[in-house]
């Protein structure tokens, strides 16, 4: 009798253990592949929720959640409800990989991954996502990420740094400049920016001279005097925070009122909070035409901005504008648009649809591309998984600040 | 000449860090790695006084000096005092690094990560002096740092407390046996170093902005400054700081913007090889 009880208990245990495992396998298959309408479409969003770039991450997070809510209200993605899962990677590639592996081991693959707020995190996740054939769409812009042969399931929604250089070349050519100087940070970001501008400037037939500064520099008068001795016609500046402030203040101190163009990073710093108009004479910052207060607005933007203002992350709009929220939003919007074309949420079909995405007629589902998608085209191909910027996508304007609706207002503090 | 002024102004900040290291080292025998962070806290307290509270310059300086002295006192009580009397004398190096990390984190949490402009109250327009451009705040920083360094040098050589701190630095046990209260001297040194760091917060912040990671850049070059000038010598710390600033500025200007750190650390190594006690440090006998 006792032996029979033991056998029954063993059998019951086996059944209890096996059933959930079988169910997990089913969830995984459905979620990642088939178009079973009842299964939610899982978006795994990994970002920094508690560290140095948590403010930026809050904007991205709010944007993708607003998008999920917006598309769920109109039936989800191909009939599947969009569910956003979040992971706090603290902008640490190692932690991001560990959290993703835990998520995959827990059963069921996500359908879409937003792979972190920095290129380093994205690069650490892409090998795993590629192996698992999981689609990822992100706003990080390292050129290493745009490698469809290596990472066939990854797509970018933000312009890479090289797309900003034509705006400088265009401004410099219009003013007849012959020699461009660049002051940049002696780190990977600065060197990458310098390489982009050097290629663009020399490609346009102008001379390029350069000087670097270390992260520990408290003053840049020596670097600027060195550049000044080479008689350039314009200066390009790379840097953020105190580095950008030291450069501007040192430039004013030596009385060098040379036309100055900030690169993408330096443009994002709020100069008017810290410097006077006399220290910013001749300084220009580069912004996407779509985010300028003076540009024509996307018809859906007012509603999107109202949702941002109602979200818990509303306070970030004064420092990042609506553009960063839109990066999170647009990552999902592009996939929803591709799914509508593919009539599927299966990763390979979505990938194929993205690589032959038809240009939307009228206003696109995404906002950063402008009211009719004229500023940024998601014309992905089998060899290019990043968007394409046009000649008028970026403009140099006077330093300003974001207004109450998150539009950049040149010249206004 | 603009390069000279820039080197001297930056060097003055390195000198202040070196002087702070020396004040504590002489009196308590501890190398306070968190001193650069005390200077950083001084800039934030100066910002709080001048901008948040809208105080004039003198009350702002007093507020920053008192606040930073209090933080230095807490650091001494929490990070140094528990280690006194232990056989492992190097423990304080670790705990002061820990204190530096905590101060960085607290500053970022309280004042944020964006740089804050600290108004010195002096005109911001650069002057032309001896053929170079220099801001009035930089001149004030250079001049007051010189006064402080020379003043502390004379004080340590010609006053009873100063001589007691030199005796304590040389042999704590012997100094104690001669009736010097070495523990009180150590506490007083932390408070004095903190007060100096806070008092200069307004001028330093006007040059560097108040930013939570300022200590990282200052700690390294402050250390180079006392290694060049000689640890334990206030005059050495003063001159070492100015020398470091000038070498850096001239290396950027005339050798190349890619090489200033290499040149500074080249000089640092050269001094270590040729004169390990620094330019003004005294050689001490040690029984081995």
TrEMBL record, chain A:
A Pfam entry, by short name: Peripla_BP_6
Superkingdom of origin: Bacteria
Keyword Cell division carried by entry: no
UniProt cross-references to PANTHER family, sorted A to Z: LEUCINE-SPECIFIC-BINDING PROTEIN, PERIPLASMIC BINDING PROTEIN OF ABC TRANSPORTER FOR NATURAL AMINO ACIDS
Domain Leucine-binding protein: 47-358
Signal as UniProt keyword: yes
Signal peptide (UniProt feature, chain positions): 1-22
Protein name, as recorded: Branched-chain amino acid transport system substrate-binding protein
The family this protein is said to belong to: Belongs to the leucine-binding protein family.
Source organism: Streptosporangium saharense
Keywords per UniProt: Signal
SUPFAM superfamilies to which the protein is assigned, alphabetical: Periplasmic binding protein-like I
InterPro entries the UniProt entry points to: BCAA_transport (IPR051010), Leu-bd (IPR028081), Peripla_BP_I (IPR028082)
TrEMBL record, chain B:
GO CC annotations, alphabetized: plasma membrane
One Pfam family in the UniProt entry: BPD_transp_2
CDD domains named in the record: TM_PBP1_LivH_like
Entry-linked InterPro entries: ABC_transp_permease (IPR001851), BCAA_transport_permease (IPR052157)
Membrane topology according to the record: Multi-pass membrane protein
Keyword annotations from UniProtKB, A to Z: Amino-acid transport, Cell membrane, Membrane, Transmembrane, Transmembrane helix, Transport
Alphabetical GO biological process terms: amino acid transport
Entry's localization field: Cell membrane
Segments traversing the membrane: 6-26, 92-112, 132-155, 182-203
Record GO terms (molecular function): transmembrane transporter activity
Similarity comment: Belongs to the binding-protein-dependent transport system permease family. LivHM subfamily.
Protein name, UniProt field: Branched-chain amino acid transport system permease protein
């Amino acid at each position: 009798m006792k032996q029979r009880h033991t056998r029954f208990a063993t059998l019951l245990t086996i059944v209890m253990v096996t059933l959930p495992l079988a169910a997990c396998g089913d969830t995984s298959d459905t979620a990642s592949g088939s178009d079973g309408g009842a299964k939610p479409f899982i978006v795994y969003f990994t970002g920094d929720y508690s560290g140095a770039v948590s403010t930026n991450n809050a904007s991205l997070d709010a944007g993708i959640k607003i998008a999920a809510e917006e598309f769920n209200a109109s039936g989800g993605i191909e009939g599947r409800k969009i569910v956003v899962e979040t992971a706090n990677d603290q902008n640490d590639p190692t932690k991001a990989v560990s959290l993703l592996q835990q998520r995959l081991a827990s059963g069921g693959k996500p359908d879409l991954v937003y792979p972190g707020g920095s290129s380093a995190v994205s690069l650490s996740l892409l090998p795993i996502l590629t192996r698992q054939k999981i689609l990822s769409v992100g706003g990080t812009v390292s050129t290493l990420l745009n490698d469809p042969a290596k990472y066939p399931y990854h797509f970018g929604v933000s312009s890479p740094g090289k797309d900003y250089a034509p705006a400088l070349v265009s401004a410099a050519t219009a003013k007849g400049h012959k020699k461009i100087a660049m002051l940049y940070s002696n780190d990977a970001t600065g060197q990458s920016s310098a390489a982009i501008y050097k290629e663009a400037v020399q490609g346009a037939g102008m001379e390029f001279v350069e000087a670097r500064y270390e992260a520990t520099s408290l003053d840049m008068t020596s670097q600027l005097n060195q550049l000044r001795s080479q008689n350039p016609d314009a200066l390009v500046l790379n840097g953020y925070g105190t580095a950008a402030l030291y450069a501007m203040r040192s430039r004013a101190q030596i009385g060098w009122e040379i036309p100055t163009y900030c690169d993408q990073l330096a443009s994002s710093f709020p100069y008017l909070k810290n410097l006077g108009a006399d220290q910013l004479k001749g300084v220009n910052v580069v912004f996407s035409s779509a985010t300028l207060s003076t540009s024509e607005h996307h018809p859906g933007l007012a509603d999107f901005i109202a949702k941002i203002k109602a979200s818990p992350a509303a306070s970030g709009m004064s420092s990042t504008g609506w553009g960063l929220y839109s990066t999170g939003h647009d990552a999902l919007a592009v996939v929803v648009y591709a799914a509508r074309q593919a009539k599927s949420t299966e990763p390979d079909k979505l990938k194929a649809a993205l690589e032959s995405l038809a240009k939307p007629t009228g206003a696109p589902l995404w906002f950063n591309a402008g009211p009719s998608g004229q500023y940024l085209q998601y014309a992905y191909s089998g060899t290019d998984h990043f968007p394409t910027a046009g000649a008028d996508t970026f403009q140099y304007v006077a330093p300003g600040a974001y207004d109450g609706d998150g539009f950049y207002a040149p010249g206004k503090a | 000449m603009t390069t000279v002024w820039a080197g001297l102004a930056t060097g003055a900040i390195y000198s202040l860090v070196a002087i702070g290291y020396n004040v504590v080292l002489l009196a308590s025998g501890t190398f306070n790695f968190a001193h650069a962070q005390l200077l950083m806290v001084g800039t934030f307290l100066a910002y709080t006084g001048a901008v948040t509270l809208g105080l004039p310059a003198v009350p702002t300086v007093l507020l920053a000096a008192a606040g930073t002295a209090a933080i230095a006192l807490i650091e001494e009580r929490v990070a140094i005092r528990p280690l006194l009397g232990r056989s492992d004398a190097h423990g304080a190096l670790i705990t002061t690094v820990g204190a530096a990390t905590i101060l960085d984190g607290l500053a970022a949490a309280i004042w944020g990560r964006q740089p804050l402009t600290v108004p010195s109250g002096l005109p911001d327009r650069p002057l032309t002096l001896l053929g170079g451009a220099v801001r009035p705040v930089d001149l004030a920083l250079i001049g007051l740092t010189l006064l402080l360094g020379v003043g502390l040098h004379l004080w340590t050589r010609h006053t009873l407390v100063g001589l007691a701190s030199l005796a304590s630095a040389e042999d704590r046990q012997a100094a104690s046996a001669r009736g010097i209260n070495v523990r009180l001297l150590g506490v007083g040194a932390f408070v004095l170093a903190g007060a100096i760091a806070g008092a200069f917060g307004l001028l330093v912040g006007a040059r560097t902005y108040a930013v939570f990671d300022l200590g990282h850049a200052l700690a390294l070059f402050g250390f180079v400054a006392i290694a060049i000038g000689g640890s334990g010598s206030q005059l050495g710390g003063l001159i070492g700081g100015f020398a470091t600033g000038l070498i850096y500025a001239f290396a950027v200007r005339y050798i190349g913007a890619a090489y200033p750190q290499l040149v500074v650390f080249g000089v640092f190594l050269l001094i270590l090889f040729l004169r390990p006690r620094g330019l003004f440090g005294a050689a001490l006998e040690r029984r081995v």
